[in-house]
């Protein structure tokens, strides 16, 4: 007899069993033949290897983002990066990753998540090393773009591997929790080590270090991840029939154009009015309904699809996706403008600024471990609401603080509180989104989650940058110092991210009010 995992609804919500199944995908068989391994992982040593490997590689991805963010001025100086390309070493990584995640997930479900994960991990080591060896700005940007594709192989596959190796319950929840905790932890470690190594040795040292650690994790995954069995051999016919290549092309093109536009807006507010930006935005937006139309056709013909249109009529699924979009956008923008605050307004060095972020990984790691261990005992809707309220305090504190306020009075609690909503939402959303996809498309489910998060980060940062730039321009009174004008713009951006976080409270009240416990093991 197979055990099942249930996403419970709160008693008294008035929902029938049929509605419950349609809204939250109530059951997930624990024991299925394909593409799961012959037996679930039971040994503690193997469990530790799996969690360490998966958490480590995703943490390295975030570490690289933090490292590049803090090292960008030094990179620009050494490689003579023009102002037009200044932000591209950081933004191109998210752009290429974001537009290939769903396709990578779909491919991983056919060729095998373990294989895809190993290839992605190896590629990330190679391209990270290549970034450190770059002699020109174009080389650096190209290798960062390829590294973004590499991590898109890893992220969806990691979700599938967790679903495959661990049955529903505490260990699966803990694995998702640690995977989520590795991301803020990695970003902050990247900021701190990147700042220190850039000041002491050079920006290349951080990339070499990251490539070395990633290579160790690749070897650990190669020999430590249990092999998966396959019922049918991999053939070109399967690749052709089981992956919606046309849909993937339409959606990837749309995401690439939209993410490119948002990246250019972040770099220069004037790009909003450029013909190139308007054209890309129009085409990218038009391709989204074209994708929905194509999926409708594929469903009628009984062919493979990436994301069923019917999923968006599921209130719980759609609400979770909206929350992921808003929270990741708010978190990324709030954190980015804190970096600007420390360096551009406070005048701190890269190392000093990065040290001020140290409370974030401590809080993030603790919350992720706790939510991983106890999420199956909590009502998920209340856990989400509490986390949104707590994290909303972060941009609120920054928005109302005075220029001469001490770090401990406003900035310290803001840094400590900002990751909480992201960390709680990460585990809960993974459990809900993966429940909506069949057992043999779990990598695709991981691709959907990570794509929404990437889009949220790009849109949130772009819109916040527009808000901040507009307010800073209006505050450009000759009697007001440049730093004061910048601070006014940053405050406006934090009010914007505060509103986005508060919006999640109302989304949850509407769409997730009947959601009870998630990650619960049922016999």
Automatic annotation (TrEMBL):
Pfam families, A to Z: MFS_1 (PF07690)
Region (Disordered) residue spans: 1-20
Subcellular location field: Membrane
Start-end of Polar residues biased regions: 1-17
GO cellular component: membrane
Membrane topology (UniProt): Multi-pass membrane protein
Positions of the Major facilitator superfamily (MFS) profile domain: 50-515
Name of this protein: Major facilitator superfamily (MFS) profile domain-containing protein
Bilayer-spanning residue ranges: 48-72, 84-104, 116-133, 145-166, 205-225, 245-265, 277-295, 316-333, 353-375, 382-401, 492-512
The entry's keywords: Membrane, Transmembrane, Transmembrane helix
Keyword Membrane attributed: yes
GO molecular function: transmembrane transporter activity
């Amino acid at each position: 007899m197979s055990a099942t995992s249930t996403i419970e609804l709160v008693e008294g919500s008035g929902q029938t069993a049929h509605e419950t199944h349609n809204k939250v995908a109530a059951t997930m068989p624990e024991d299925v033949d394909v593409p799961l391994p012959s037996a679930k992982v039971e040994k503690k040593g193997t469990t530790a290897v799996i969690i360490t490997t998966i958490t480590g590689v995703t943490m390295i991805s975030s570490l690289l983002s933090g490292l590049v963010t803090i090292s960008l001025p030094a990179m620009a100086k050494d490689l003579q990066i023009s102002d037009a390309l200044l932000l591209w070493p950081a933004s191109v990584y998210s752009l290429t990753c974001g537009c290939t995640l769903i396709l990578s997930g779909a491919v991983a479900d056919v060729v095998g998540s373990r294989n895809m994960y190993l290839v992605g991990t190896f590629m990330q080591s190679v391209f990270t090393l290549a970034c450190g060896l770059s002699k020109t700005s174009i080389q650096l940007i190209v290798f960062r773009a390829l590294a973004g594709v590499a991590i898109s192989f890893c992220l969806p596959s990691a979700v599938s591997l967790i679903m495959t190796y661990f049955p529903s319950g505490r260990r699966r929840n803990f694995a998702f929790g640690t995977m989520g905790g590795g991301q803020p932890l990695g970003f902050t470690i990247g900021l701190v080590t990147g700042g220190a190594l850039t000041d002491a040795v050079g920006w290349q040292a951080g990339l070499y270090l990251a490539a070395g650690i990633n290579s160790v994790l690749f070897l650990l995954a190669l020999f430590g991840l249990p092999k998966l069995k396959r019922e049918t051999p991999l053939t070109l016919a399967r690749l052709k029939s089981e992956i919606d290549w046309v849909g993937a092309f339409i959606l990837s093109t749309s995401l690439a154009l939209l993410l490119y536009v948002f990246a250019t807006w972040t770099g220069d507010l004037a790009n909003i009015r450029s013909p190139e930006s308007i054209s890309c935005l129009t085409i990218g937006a038009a391709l989204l309904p074209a994708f929905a139309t194509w999926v409708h056709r594929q469903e009628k013909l009984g062919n493979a699809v990436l994301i069923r249109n019917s999923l968006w009529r599921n209130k719980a699924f759609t609400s979770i996706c909206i929350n992921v979009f808003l929270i990741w956008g708010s978190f990324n923008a709030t954190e980015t403008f804190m970096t600007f605050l420390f360096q551009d307004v406070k005048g701190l060095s890269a190392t000093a600024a990065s040290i001020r972020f140290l409370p974030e990984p401590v809080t993030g790691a603790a919350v992720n471990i706790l939510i991983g261990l106890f999420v199956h005992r909590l009502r998920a809707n209340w856990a989400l609401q509490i986390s949104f309220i707590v994290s909303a305090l972060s941009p609120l504190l920054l928005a109302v603080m005075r220029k001469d306020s001490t770090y401990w009075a406003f900035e310290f609690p803001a840094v400590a509180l900002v990751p909480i909503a992201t960390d709680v939402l990460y585990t809960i959303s993974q459990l809900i989104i993966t429940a909506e996809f069949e057992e043999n498309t779990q990598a695709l489910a991981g691709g959907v989650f990570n794509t929404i998060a990437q889009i949220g980060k790009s849109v949130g940062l772009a819109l916040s940058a527009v808000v901040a730039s507009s307010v800073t321009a209006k505050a450009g009174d000759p009697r007001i110092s440049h730093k004061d004008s910048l601070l006014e713009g940053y405050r406006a951006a934090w009010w914007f991210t505060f509103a986005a976080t508060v919006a999640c409270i109302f989304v949850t009240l509407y769409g997730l009010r009947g959601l009870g416990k998630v990650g619960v093991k049922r016999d």
